[in-house]
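BUG: 3D viewer hangs when loading the predicted structure for this chain

Environment: internal workstation, default settings.
Expected: structure renders.
Actual: progress bar stalls at 90%.

Input used:
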Amino acid sequence: MLSKGQAKASRQVADAIRHHQELLVWAVCGAGKTEVLFSGIEYGLAIGKKICIATPRTDVVLELAPRLKKVFPTADITALYGGSEERNKSASLYLSITHQLLRFKEAFDAIIVDEVDAFPYSADKALQYAVEKSRKPVSSLIYLTATPSKRWKREVEQNKRMAVRIPARYHGHPLPVPAYKWCGDWRKKLKKDTLPTVIIKWMTAQLQSRKQAFLFVPSISIIDQVVQLCKKFDERIIGVHAEDPERKEKVRSFRNGDIPIIVTSTILERGVTIPNSDVAVLGSEDEIFTESALVQISGRVGRSASYPTGEIILFHFGKTQAMLDAKRHIQKMNEAARRSDLLTKK
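Structure tokens produced before the viewer hung:
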């Protein structure tokens, strides 16, 4: 059963597909946005529309494919990504990484672009062109994101972009709000091959709590050193990043609960849900931690109805505007959810 926020967005998605409109679905991390699409997809498939869900990441395609096959058992569904064996199979519902859309021209009656703010789609004009080129002249275009760009936010506020907001998670609890904690010159500490005292205290408490945690760091170059320093406290702590050949296996072990703390680059800011987990960011003042990245990182916490709360600590050597904006973004969503009576839990 859909929450009140999901139900409203679901109706608007179906209307957009029915009336060939563009729509932005601005939904907080963990809102349950996939379920919001089902009614519109069902309507489109029933009248013979060809629909595509496009996403920047292969792992999302692989995760969504079995789920959608279960929801729409009679539909022809094709998953497109690098190395896919279904590349030449025609279907009524396509799941595709955005790169694969370069192969299509005026093929789809409706395109749903997931994580529209995510790299590489957000920065690659060729991928944005691919989406436009693969649409039929009369078609729907639906964007999904938790973190729209400043320009899109402004367009929504000025009623220049049609949008529906889901400011609350499906379980009705408010979004956990990040806390700031000064950690001093952590780079200098690393040069002396040690961690800031506050990080050590956090890690010790975290290991005692038996809750899993993400520790985000600003660059791949320091992951190995941070991991070695953390392993003094627990041998099971590991690190992961985009170029890691064992990335999939490590993430699977983390999901299975075998790893208490994972030291990671921003590669895990999206797409990985660990039910009972906390988050810390070391060096959150670094420019890689944009407002969008920090909102997504905070969104790892409290996603499960069984564990709807958790801690996000931004350890810093000086607050940045991005840190302030990320906290304000999350607080504003909680306020909007309260005003709309979408928070059923305290």
